[in-house]
Amino acid sequence: MKESIYNVIVKNKNLALIYNTLSNSFISLDSSFVKQNRINLDILPNDLRKVLYENGIVVDDDIEEYESLKFVNNRSNYSNRSISYTILPTLDCNAHCHYCFQNLKKEYMSEECQDRVVELMRFDHKVKNNEVIYIAFFGGEPLLDKSFEVIKTLCTKIRAAFREELVSDKLKINLSIITNGTEINKEKLNFLVKNSLKSIQITFDGDKEYHDKIKGKGFFDKTIKSLHLLKEYKIKPTLRINTLRENIDSIKSLIRYLGENGIAEFCGIYFSPVTNINELVKVKNDNFLSTKEFSKIEIEFIKLALKNKFSFSIPKTNISLCTASFPSDKVIGPDGRLYKCYNGIYEKEDYGSIIDEKMRNMRSFFKYVNYSPFDDKACQNCLVFPICKGGCPYERIRGNKECLSYKYNLKEIITQIYEHSQIS
């Protein structure tokens, strides 16, 4: 028997907090059982050894955890259980964020394109016989009235095409939406809930003053109103907080506002650094945060969020990595072009089209599906590899090997969540 290579050990007073990034087990031990950041297996009582074994914190001598993780990853990539489609009804948007590249065209998905989307889904299902279809609507702003008409028509057509499978419970179709939150209303929510809306992500940039400066006048109040409406519908949104050097204080102000106004209790939250993804991102270079800088700021945000009644869990194993590396998963633009990653829309990395079958660029397809985070030997012995899997494939393929913030702050995240749980 040996200790897992994926144990993160944090000393906390007379305890050793142990989190395994592969099994996601979290256990606290008397610190006397840990020496030089390693579990002293020789002095463990048998009952405690059994508990650690059952939680993947100690493993059999012949277990190769890295190879096991690699196998699970490869099996997941070619699983027939589910298939995901990210559909962009439009690239049009009512906001004018200076860091966003998505407001490229005011084009909306046509009826012909919608029909081809349904045909594609039927074909994929016939080949894979999958149990779940995940559909994520993105943009642009997918909930603009004209865009939502596309969503309504498309969802109705999809459900009609799969009526037999849905009625017999052989198939589930789950929806998610990524939105700025300004265009949510009861009519739209009624339709989405009826069509199995499972998650909704809403983006924030900071407090009212900063958020409206970035997105547009009145955006903050509209989004807050939408959050209260989601609470009525018992829908728990996830708030993505876009982070630059210039809005750190504004984000702290936002966290306090959400806590003081009873919003934090029914929302998830995470913080994401804005990156210089392409030339359409109109942000000065000195405004971007390096990963190490962001990892320190992220801890400050998490501490404050916990104090303001947000809940957090320790980051978990990322089996699926990203839909970009799944051969069957697709991003579909409003013109019917197919991509592996939505960032590829700006790069014109389409690998085909459901409208024009002659349009093919399989290089774009293969560079994503053949990408493997396991090819980078530098990641092989990293404690957080099961969580990050090397990070964003889009960035990695372009040679950006900067690690995720968890590499630098996971121990502090564990400490903060543990100490908050003791106070609570």
Describe what you observe in this structure:
The protein has 424 residues and is α/β, with parallel strands linked by helices. It has a domain at 1-63. It is built from 15 helices and 16 strands. It has helices at 46-54, 65-77, 111-128, 145-161, 163-167, 186-194, 208-215, 219-232, 248-260, 291-307, 344-347, 362-369, 385-388, 393-397, 406-423, and strands at residues 2-3, 7-12, 15-20, 26-30, 34-35, 38-39, 58-59, 82-87, 132-137, 172-179, 197-204, 238-243, 268-273, 330-332, 337-339, 352-353. It has a nine-stranded mixed β-sheet. Strands 2-3-4 form a three-stranded antiparallel β-sheet, with helices on one face. A two-stranded antiparallel ribbon has the order 1-7. The protein is globular. 36% of the residues are buried. The mean pLDDT is 93.
Secondary structure topology:
Elements: E1 2-3, E2 7-12, E3 15-20, E4 26-30, E5 34-35, E6 38-39, H1 46-54, E7 58-59, H2 65-77, E8 82-87, H3 111-128, E9 132-137, H4 145-161, H5 163-167, E10 172-179, H6 186-194, E11 197-204, H7 208-215, H8 219-232, E12 238-243, H9 248-260, E13 268-273, H10 291-307, E14 330-332, E15 337-339, H11 344-347, E16 352-353, H12 362-369, H13 385-388, H14 393-397, H15 406-423
Parallel strand pairs: 8-9, 8-14, 9-10, 10-11, 11-12, 12-13
Antiparallel strand pairs: 1-7, 2-3, 3-4, 5-6, 14-15, 15-16
